[in-house]
Design a protein that fits this description.
- The chain is flat and about 95 Å long.
- The strands form 3 sheets. The protein has a 6-stranded mixed beta sheet, with helices on both faces. The chain has a two-stranded antiparallel ribbon with strand order 1-2.
- The chain has 367 residues and is of the alpha/beta class.
- It has 3 domains: 69 residues, no CATH class; 61 residues, no CATH class; 173 residues, von Willebrand factor, type A domain (Rossmann fold, 3-Layer(aba) Sandwich).
- The protein has 10 helices and 10 strands.
Length: 367
C-alpha cells in the first residue's frame, strides 16, 4: 500500500510539473510563483487539475440515492434561481502546490533549453573536504561500521568453532570492531558574484522595476544552482551611483538625470576590491530604459566595458526596459561598438510578457 501511495504521489507531482511547464511564461510575467514557503520552497497556485475519478453511468439511472428524476436535474438544497444576488454555492478554487527550488530549476532548464553553466577555471582556490575512503580497527564509536563489525565477529566465531547453528548469536568483542576512516582532500571550488545595476531616475517607474524584480528572481535561481557560494550586490543610479540592499534596490525611486558611467565605475570598484576576477565568477546584469546623459557619458561606458568588464566577467547582460520617457538609445550604441563580444548579451524588454525571452537570451550561452 505504501509503495502504491508513493507511486501515485510521484505521478501527481509529474502532472503538476507538466502544468507549470505549460504556463511558465505566464508565471514569469505575472509573478504568481514568487511566494516563498520556508527554506528553498515556493508555493505555486495552479488551476484545478482533473484527476481520473468514477462517474455514474447515465444509461442506468437507478441505484441507491438516485430517486426519480431526469438527467440534468440539480441535486442539492434546491433549484438555483437566476439573478444578481449573492450565491451560496462554492466556486472554482486554485490549487496551491509547493515545489523546491531544485524542481523549479529543472523545469526552467527543460522549458528554456538552458545549458549548464561552466564556471571559469579556479584551480588555485581549494576547500578541504572529508571523504570516507576505508575501514580502520580504531576510531570513535559514532563511526563504527556495524556490518563490517558483524562480519569480523562471525568470521572469528566460525574459525574458533564457537558459532552455534542452533542458537545463532553473534557477539562482537573489542578486536572485531571496525570503523569508517576518512581522508581530507583539497578540491577546487568555484564561487560567483551577481552584480545588479539599475537606473532609478524619474523615467524608470514601478512597472519597469517590477520587470526587473521578476527577472532577477529567475536569474538568481539559475546561477545559485551552479555555485556553492554566491554573493549578490545591488547598485542604483541616476546621475550618481550608490550600493544598496535588495529591498531598497526594488523600491527606491529618485529624480534627476541619468549618468550610467557612475554605476559602471562603482561596480568595477566593488569587483576590484571585494571580488577579484581571478578568484570569482562574475555576472553583471544592468537594467535601464536606455536614456543616458549625452555629454560623452556613453563613450565612457563603452570604454569601461571594453577595458575592464568584458575581459574579466563571465557575462555582462544589459536589459533595456521600455519606458514612455526614456530615449532607448543606449542599446544601439552597445550593439554598434561592442556587439561582437561573446560575453555581452543585450535584450529589449518591452513588457512583462517578454521576460521569458529575455531570460533565455541572458542564460542561454552557459557561461
Amino acid at each position: 500500500m505504501a509503495l502504491q501511495i508513493e507511486r501515485d504521489y510521484q505521478r501527481f507531482r509529474e502532472i503538476v510539473k507538466g502544468k507549470i511547464r505549460e504556463n511558465l511564461r505566464k508565471y514569469m510575467s505575472h509573478g504568481e510563483i514568487l511566494v516563498p514557503r520556508g527554506r528553498g520552497v515556493v508555493s505555486i497556485p495552479l488551476p484545478r487539475i482533473e484527476i481520473p475519478h468514477f462517474r455514474f453511468d447515465t444509461r442506468k439511472m437507478g441505484g441507491v440515492g438516485q430517486g426519480e428524476g431526469e438527467v440534468g436535474t440539480p441535486v442539492g438544497v434546491g433549484e438555483v434561481e437566476g439573478g444578481s444576488a449573492a450565491g451560496d454555492q462554492p466556486g472554482e478554487h486554485l490549487l496551491e502546490v509547493e515545489l523546491t527550488f531544485e524542481e523549479l530549476v529543472q523545469i526552467l532548464a527543460e522549458d528554456l533549453e538552458l545549458p549548464r553553466i561552466v564556471p571559469k577555471g579556479k584551480e588555485d582556490i581549494y576547500v578541504e573536504k572529508e571523504r570516507y575512503t576505508g575501514i580502520a580497527r580504531s576510531g570513535p564509536e559514532s563511526l563504527r561500521h556495524f556490518k563490517r563489525t558483524y562480519k569480523e565477529a562471525l568470521k572469528r566465531q566460525l574459525i574458533a568453532g564457537l558459532y552455534d547453528f542452533e542458537n545463532p548469536i553473534v557477539v562482537p568483542i573489542r578486536e572485531d570492531r571496525r570503523y569508517r576512516s576518512w581522508k581530507v582532500r583539497l578540491v577546487p571550488i568555484a564561487k560567483a558574484v551577481i552584480l545588479y545595476m539599475m537606473d532609478v531616475s524619474g523615467s524608470m517607474g514601478p512597472e519597469q522595476k517590477e520587470i526587473v524584480r521578476l527577472e532577477s528572481f529567475w536569474i538568481d535561481l539559475w546561477i545559485r544552482h551552479h555555485y556553492k557560494r554566491t554573493e549578490t550586490c545591488y547598485i542604483v543610479h541616476d546621475a550618481a551611483a550608490k550600493e544598496v540592499d535588495r529591498e531598497t534596490f526594488f523600491r527606491l525611486r529618485e529624480g534627476g538625470g541619468t549618468r550610467i558611467s557612475s554605476a559602471y565605475k562603482l561596480g568595477w570598484e566593488i569587483i576590484r576590491e571585494r571580488f577579484p576576477p581571478d578568484e570569482w565568477n562574475i555576472y553583471v546584469f544592468q537594467f535601464s530604459d536606455g536614456d543616458n546623459w549625452d555629454g560623452g557619458d556613453t563613450e565612457t561606458c563603452i570604454k569601461l566595458l571594453r577595458e575592464h568588464y568584458l575581459p574579466n566577467v563571465n557575462l555582462f547582460c544589459y536589459g533595456q526596459v521600455k519606458s514612455a520617457y526614456g530615449s532607448g538609445d543606449f542599446i544601439y550604441h552597445l550593439e554598434r561598438h561592442l556587439g561582437r563580444a561573446e560575453n555581452l548579451i543585450l535584450s529589449r524588454i518591452n513588457s512583462k510578457e517578454e521576460i521569458y525571452d529575455s531570460i533565455k537570451a541572458f542564460l542561454g550561452k552557459g557561461k
